[in-house]
From TrEMBL, chain A:
<dbReference type="InterPro" id="IPR028082">
    <property type="entry name" value="Peripla_BP_I"/>
</dbReference>
<dbReference type="InterPro" id="IPR028081">
    <property type="entry name" value="Leu-bd"/>
</dbReference>
<feature type="domain" description="Leucine-binding protein">
    <location>
        <begin position="30"/>
        <end position="367"/>
    </location>
</feature>
<dbReference type="Pfam" id="PF13458">
    <property type="entry name" value="Peripla_BP_6"/>
</dbReference>
<protein>
    <submittedName>
        <fullName>Probable ABC transporter substrate binding protein</fullName>
    </submittedName>
</protein>
<comment type="similarity">
    <text>Belongs to the leucine-binding protein family.</text>
</comment>
<dbReference type="InterPro" id="IPR051010">
    <property type="entry name" value="BCAA_transport"/>
</dbReference>
<keyword id="KW-0732">Signal</keyword>
<feature type="signal peptide">
    <location>
        <begin position="1"/>
        <end position="24"/>
    </location>
</feature>
UniProtKB/TrEMBL annotation, chain B:
<protein>
    <submittedName>
        <fullName>ABC transporter permease protein</fullName>
    </submittedName>
</protein>
<keyword id="KW-0813">Transport</keyword>
<keyword id="KW-1133">Transmembrane helix</keyword>
<dbReference type="GO" id="GO:0005886">
    <property type="term" value="C:plasma membrane"/>
</dbReference>
<dbReference type="GO" id="GO:0006865">
    <property type="term" value="P:amino acid transport"/>
</dbReference>
<keyword id="KW-1003">Cell membrane</keyword>
<feature type="transmembrane region" description="Helical">
    <location>
        <begin position="15"/>
        <end position="39"/>
    </location>
</feature>
<feature type="transmembrane region" description="Helical">
    <location>
        <begin position="67"/>
        <end position="86"/>
    </location>
</feature>
<feature type="transmembrane region" description="Helical">
    <location>
        <begin position="188"/>
        <end position="219"/>
    </location>
</feature>
Length: 404, 294
């Protein structure tokens, strides 16, 4: 009797060990995704809770369709757009909570801080909200993916199209910090390269609420196009006040970074006629509509490109983990880079060696109020910009990982 | 013609815009000055109350179809009433304590109010249309002046000077000033001092809400609109002299003008010029330009 008990115990232990052995490729038999985003500040509408919802959707869809042999969990936190908070949280997640990837990371400063921590601890970073190009140039590393868009693609879309359509004289209204200056610089280069001219610019404090003084300077310049190298509330307030002072429609505005949440908050009456560049529009085709309606049911707003990209990047990551059979960073990154991305967000998207996910971008024009037939019917898609044209070519990359 | 290398048309238009922004500063700092001067409370919730004033106008229009002119009256009454409730239930307990307690309490309240509106309406803001009667603009020769902005200056100045008149020249104002100097004696004369103080706080808060309704058609109605403005307004109050009624009005207008000119000559400094002046004024006259030395 005693021997039998002992035997059973030994067998159970052996089985248990076998079982653990089979899953030893996954730390804790769980893949843990950490959504680090702005939950309460300036960018909380375009990323924030919507990014958490999109991540949750990706996890649920992945588990339902792929039936993986491992568990998938999500944690989320508010980085308050502060680099120190972001890097502390990421470190805590990686060190103590077994988080495998930190995702979203709107605002460049938080993204760059988390990239450093992740590199040190060899964990994956998936970025959807931040826009600056240094992420895949000087600051690039082999654990990071820059997924949704960047300032190069924005300038290359909007500034190029507007200049080619005859908007040759530009005046820039620029938010006086790194992002605004980078956007002005990238856009000026595109304007000049396309035969246009920059007649002047004014730097406004960030954030600002009254733009009338700056707008009057733009008006006095007599430029055809006023380029708005700012974002969020700065952009929406500038657009609203340009209409108030009779500057539009005599002079045209070009919003160099605008999200559908900005257009929604401005209303079509104020935003009509503007060109902008986006990585995603919910009403593009049946696939985008189907996913976006599911998102709408949960969040009561249509997704921004950041939120749609969040779903796509998390899904791509989880599929790569399953295909590689491990959550080991190097193997998962290799798998992600070699697999093209084909979903509602991107067709034949590809992650390059500098971490840039290359996919088509869209040049859109905001509809007039009378052209909008149903809620959130905001854009005319004017042009599909192929990925290879939209993003900075690898030959110009300043990323040390890129072999020349 | 040029003035210091700047075309005179641009110079003139910046002066006018400075005056418009200055009238916002004046009306907001006036509310703060009244509350501080008569209650000794540093009302950090003032920016949130300004924001709520704008939101009440927006909600009234979109949900109930209440127009701008009604909102201009309704919003200050509602938010002022909320102020009365706050005064009765919370602030009243702090009058005998250090100023710091009032500041901390109102700061906490501001965060709570902003959080609630952010949770309900998001951060991007809501658009509020200029009322039909004030649409369009006038060509002044040197600039295109939106009629609505002109109305803002007129309305703000009328309310500011009305308030100044009430406090400095009427019997009610005299009771108020006496009640804060020596509450026991005034109470002994049969005047209800606690009621006067409650009324004063409610009025100060109503001024913030009034400015909020004025601002709604110009800026996006957003939970952060007050937080962005309140620091500058505090600087205006300090420069004018804490608690000085006339000081806050004159300084508000003056600093609006100076800020407008900075935006022409050196735009990058326009966000800090007010604080630069504050430092200089505090060094030369620690009680502020119009303040009485303690």
């Amino acid at each position: 009797m005693h021997t039998k008990k002992l035997l059973t115990a030994a067998c159970t232990a052996a089985l248990a060990m076998l079982a653990t052995g089979a899953h030893a490729q996954f730390s804790g038999n769980t893949v843990k995704i950490g959504v680090l985003t702005d939950m309460s500040g300036t960018y909380s509408d375009l990323a924030g809770q919507g990014a958490v919802v999109a991540t949750q959707m990706a996890i649920e869809d992945f588990v339902a369709k792929e039936k993986p042999g491992f568990k998938v969990e999500m944690v989320s936190a508010d980085h308050q757009n502060k680099a120190d908070i972001a890097s502390n949280k990421a470190r805590e997640w990686f060190e103590r909570e077994g988080v495998d990837t930190a995702t979203e990371l709107v605002t460049t400063s938080t993204a760059l801080a988390v990239m450093k921590v992740a590199k040190e601890m060899n964990k994956v970073v998936l970025m959807n909200g931040p826009g600056s190009t240094p992420i895949t140039n000087e600051q690039c590393n082999d654990v990071s993916v820059h997924y949704t868009y960047d300032t190069y693609a924005l300038a290359n879309g909007t500034a190029k199209a507007v200049t080619q359509q005859g908007g040759k004289n530009w005046f820039f209204l620029t938010a006086d910090y790194a992002f605004g200056q980078a956007l002005e610089k990238d856009s000026s280069a595109v304007v000049t390269a396309n035969g246009g001219k920059v007649v002047g610019s004014v730097r406004h404090p960030f954030p600002a609420s009254d733009f009338s003084s700056f707008l009057l300077q733009a008006q006095a310049s007599n430029a055809q196009i006023i380029g708005l190298a700012n974002a969020g509330a700065d952009t929406t307030n500038a657009i609203k006040q340009a209409a108030e002072f009779g500057i539009t429609p005599k002079q045209q505005l070009a919003g160099l970074l605008m999200f559908i949440s900005d257009v929604h908050s401005l209303g079509l009456k104020n935003a009509q006629g503007m060109f902008l560049t986006t990585g995603f529009y919910w009403d593009l085709n049946d696939e985008t509509r189907a996913w976006s309606k599911r998102f709408f049911d949960k969040q009561k707003r249509m997704p921004t490109m950041v939120q749609a990209g969040q779903y796509s990047s998390v899904m791509h990551y989880l599929k790569a983990v399953k295909a590689a059979g491990t959550d080991d960073t190097t193997k998962v990154m290799a798998q992600m880079k070699k697999t093209p991305i084909n979903d509602f967000f991107a067709k034949n998207g590809q992650i390059r060696e500098d971490g840039r996910m290359v996919h088509d971008m869209y040049l859109v024009q905001v509809k007039k109020p009378e052209e909008s037939k149903y809620p959130w019917d905001y854009y005319h898609v004017k042009q599909v910009i192929p990925g290879a044209e939209a993003f900075q070519p690898l030959s110009l990359s300043r990323c040390p990982l890129v072999k020349k | 013609m040029e003035i210091f290398g700047v075309p005179s048309a641009l110079f003139g238009s910046q002066l006018l815009i400075g005056l418009i922004n200055g009238s916002f500063y004046a009306i907001l700092s006036l509310g703060l000055a009244i509350i501080f001067g008569l209650l000794n409370i540093i009302n950090f919730a003032h920016g949130a109350q300004y924001m709520m004033g704008a939101f009440v106008a927006w909600i009234a229009l979109t949900k109930f179809g209440v127009n701008y002119w009604v909102a201009l009256l309704l919003s200050p009454i509602l938010i002022g009433a909320l102020g009365v409730v706050l005064e009765r239930t919370m602030l009243r307990k702090l009058y005998k304590l250090d100023h710091l307690y009032g500041l901390l309490l109102t700061f906490g309240l501001a965060l709570i109010f902003e959080g609630i509106f952010r949770d309900q309406y998001g951060i991007s803001g809501q658009a509020y249309e200029v009322p039909d009667a004030l649409k369009g603009g006038v060509n002044l020769g040197f600039m295109f002046m939106p009629i609505y902005r002109g109305w803002v200056v007129v309305a703000a100045l009328a309310v500011c000077f009305g308030t100044w008149f009430m406090i400095e020249k009427t019997k009610l104002g005299a009771y108020l000033r006496a009640g804060t100097e020596n509450p026991q004696i005034v109470q002994a004369l049969g005047i209800n001092v606690p009621l006067l103080i409650t009324f004063t706080y409610g009025y100060g808060v109503a001024l913030a809400a009034f400015a909020g309704v004025l601002a709604a058609p110009i800026y996006q109605v957003s939970p952060q609109m007050g937080a962005n403005l309140i620091i500058v307004v505090f600087a205006v109050v300090v420069i004018g002299g804490m608690g000085s009624i006339m000081g806050s009005i004159v300084t508000g207008l003056g600093l609006g003008l100076i800020e407008g000119l900075t935006r022409v000559f050196y735009p990058e400094a326009s966000a800090v010029v007010v604080f630069f002046i504050m430092v200089i004024v505090l060094l030369v006259r620690p009680a502020g330009l119009f303040g009485k030395a303690a």
